[in-house]
Amino acid sequence: MAALRLVVVDDHPVVRDGLRGMLGTQPDFELAGEAATGSEALTVVAAVRPDVVLTDLRLPEPSGGTLIRLLLERVPTARVLVLTTHDTDSDVLPAVEAGAIGYLLKDAPREELFRAVRAAARGETVLSPTVAAVLLARVRPKKLAPTTQLSSREREILALVAEGRTNRETAAALFISEATVKTHLLHIYAKLEVPDRASAVSAAHRRGIL
């Protein structure tokens, strides 16, 4: 089986030396090229057409998401694996949106790096735990503001509604009147900004209430 062809992009010679030494211990890896700047990376990647590009984000221009987009325009079959010290929203999101298949921090253990390179080559997404947390925080539905939090009784009613209970059945289960159930439902609809029971249940699932 042919070795995976890799290109390392980092503006620090010591980092490139370290990666060269680590990657060289793996018989299925071939370091096909290196670059210290974004412009060098574009030239090298276009010339050697690697399977995986390991790149830092903050480089002499182009860098970050712009560099990732340009690399993939040059060689669409390449997989870009970010290897950096930066894990803020402003770093992670542009890189992922630009097409990076993975995002690791430089303090990752070498075995984790090796697994990530192989996974990236297979087209699998690889994220360090801290980076995954950043992305989940952005895509996870926002919690309700304190002024729109459901009361414990409203949650009980919504849970029963989600089970398919009618207003009468819900009232019987909670030992309250059917009119009280209807009043609570109106409050729930208002807080969740929905028009009916089905929409309330759907919204509650999306927001993690149920």
From TrEMBL:
Pfam families: GerE (PF00196), Response_reg (PF00072)
Entry keywords, A to Z: DNA-binding, Phosphoprotein, Transcription, Transcription regulation
InterPro entries in alphabetical order: CheY-like_superfamily (IPR011006), NreC/VraR/RcsB-like_REC (IPR058245), Sig_transdc_resp-reg_C-effctor (IPR016032), Sig_transdc_resp-reg_receiver (IPR001789), Tscrpt_reg_LuxR_C (IPR000792), WalR-like (IPR039420)
Record domain Response regulatory: where: 5-121
Cited SUPFAM superfamilies: C-terminal effector domain of the bipartite response regulators, CheY-like
Stretches assigned to the HTH luxR-type domain: 143-208
UniProt modified residues of type 4-aspartylphosphate: 56
Database matches in SMART domains: HTH_LUXR (SM00421), REC (SM00448)
PROSITE patterns: HTH_LUXR_2, RESPONSE_REGULATORY
Name of the molecule in the record: Response regulator transcription factor
